[in-house]
Amino acid sequence: MAGSVLDDGDVLTDTDIIESYRFDRSSGTAAGQPFAVVFPRTTEQVASLMAAAYEHRVAVVPRGAGSGLTGGSNAIDGSLVLCLERMRQVRNVDVANGYVETEPGIFNTELREHVAGHGLWYAPDPASKDFCSIGGNVNTNAGGLCCVKYGVTRDAVLGLEVVLPDGRITRVGRRTVKGVAGYDLAGLMVGSEGTLGIVTMARLRLRPLPPPAATVVALFADVASAGRAVEKIMSTSTPSLLELLDRTTMQAVEEWRPSGLPVEAGALLLAQSDVPDSGADHEAESILEACLAAGAMEGYRSEDPDQAEMLLGARRMAIPALEAKGDWLLDDVAVPRSNLAEAVAAIEDIAARHDVLIGTFGHAGDGNLHPTIVTPRGDAEAADRGMAAFNDILEVALRLGGTVTGEHGIGLLKRDSLAEELDEPSRQLQRQLKDVFDPRGILNPGKSLPRW
Asked: In terms of Cα–Cα distance, which of 297, 268, 156, 284 is closest to 214?
């Protein structure tokens, strides 16, 4: 196969260097010892590697930037880690048809900057956009701050080039805006966490660059009141962004990197509208009125784009700020918006009951919360309480009609919880799909699927 030969520098066997490729960014997940890490640069190289692994029944763990939060790219004992970080080329920007074709290793921010040079915009924007790869975004169906209006990664994927576990190359999806031919294999691949195939090219829908956004900031005495405001906002508006930070999160950000956040408030809602012309101003006023009607202590329009960017930056710093306070365990649940206030109140009760610090923030507009549990470093007893709190949060999400993961995926961390969310026919179909794509079970085994 032409172009299938790896260079010596594309194969890593030094165990000291391999160590940094064993784990993703998650905490609370185990990792094994791979025998090698390989860095293919072409689809043909990926195909050759997979064909050899299939023949010899070698487990392969796909990996991008390693920014995952559930152990989805953690190594397995005796596995081959197939790292796509060197496949970084943008193959094509089709301005007329509004899409980009890119290899998986490019960072989200780099792709957004690239297409902006063509006057276009890639919407999905995870908080980790500066260091997460497009391939990882596809594999986890990543969301982001703008997904309340523009959708998650699956909504942006038109087509994919995929290497199957046996080394065959297939192209699924389409180039057209519409298309319903056959089963939606591209949609199935998105969010499959590298268990069905390896994405080597993504064809992603682009949009015109949005106009400058109007920003609304509202402060609340408690996080449950902010949750009730979200329900009011979303019943009359479609903001391009609607984010929540509780007091614990704001305090952590201020301690880590002071940003002028109002830490005396119980919660902050940050909303933006990017409706063209004067529409953004009208929608921003509607959002502000909804916040005040829901009992906001204070609410205002921000006319200063630098202040708006500072607030967005503070929101994106939530995870590293909480991480700096101790050992951390990040949850990712989503509930119906009508149950958001009840969910955040329940999380506060869980923190008190287990005597752990929980900072809650997230994409309030679509009910997606990221309660982050922090315990003193190295305190095993506190870590056990933290894990109990983590599991209780998952139970709350399911009880309220939600899901155990809104955007981070299942990986290793939530296989048991997924089994609770899915009924038996669904669990059986999940296992059968895995067998169809990967009959020898070599591709990211033990990840994503329910444990039973």
From this structure: 284
